[in-house]
Amino acid sequence: MLAHPTLDKLNALGLAGMAKAFSELVANGEAEHLSHAEWLGLLLEREWSSRYDRKLAARLRFAKLRHQAIPEDVDYRSERGLDRALFMKLLGGDWINAHDNLAICGPSGVGKSWLACALGHKACRDDRSVLYQRVPRLFAQLALARGDGRYARLQRTLGHVQLLVLDDWGLEPLNEQARHDFLEILEDRYGRRSTIITSQLPVSAWHSVIGDPTYADAILDRLVHNAHRIELSGDSLRRNLPRKA
């Protein structure tokens, strides 16, 4: 078998996964017993897997998720009020297809951000674009972008990403500019994209955080009325983490 010319052609065509699988099969004596169809099937499977892994890695780099959280590591045993059936349903992603939102509320340390990142990771696996942002830092970025000409581009990114994760919402009241920016983001996304928002405050307290009643009504109408809710409780899970020496 002319292995080297075949490898060169596979690499020239950008079929790196196939090329690697081909090299391994040639080096494996048992591969001689495979049929042509089995050879082709193995090569195609490796190429598909290689492309999927590269695409997933690119999506995760873009998402910049705060935690390396995956669905398989979710702790359903801790006493924090996490409904396993609901979370498993959310992992299925139908709510993202329906362009619904998700609010995760609860005291500090109960895993709100971690759960949001696990859902974000699953969305990346499902070939969806995801972006994580801490709300206080996001408003600061928008203020800087307004001054250096990046504002419109940043707003487009926030509006178009399929799943936007907004973490630490409600840590401080919004000023006039932040209210305007937040409404613009939600207006671009409403009915078209999905948003996860985490907060230490219950949804009932969000109106006062926004401040201006007119803006508050408009923002909450776009954010909450079609939102699934996870309401957590209990002690901080950080207390159970081992202390570093």
Automatic annotation (TrEMBL):
<dbReference type="InterPro" id="IPR028350">
    <property type="entry name" value="DNAC/IstB-like"/>
</dbReference>
<feature type="domain" description="AAA+ ATPase">
    <location>
        <begin position="98"/>
        <end position="231"/>
    </location>
</feature>
<dbReference type="GO" id="GO:0005524">
    <property type="term" value="F:ATP binding"/>
</dbReference>
<comment type="similarity">
    <text>Belongs to the IS21/IS1162 putative ATP-binding protein family.</text>
</comment>
<keyword id="KW-0547">Nucleotide-binding</keyword>
<dbReference type="InterPro" id="IPR047661">
    <property type="entry name" value="IstB"/>
</dbReference>
<dbReference type="InterPro" id="IPR003593">
    <property type="entry name" value="AAA+_ATPase"/>
</dbReference>
<protein>
    <submittedName>
        <fullName>DNA replication protein DnaC</fullName>
    </submittedName>
</protein>
<dbReference type="InterPro" id="IPR002611">
    <property type="entry name" value="IstB_ATP-bd"/>
</dbReference>
<dbReference type="GO" id="GO:0006260">
    <property type="term" value="P:DNA replication"/>
</dbReference>
<keyword id="KW-0067">ATP-binding</keyword>
<dbReference type="Pfam" id="PF01695">
    <property type="entry name" value="IstB_IS21"/>
</dbReference>
<dbReference type="InterPro" id="IPR027417">
    <property type="entry name" value="P-loop_NTPase"/>
</dbReference>
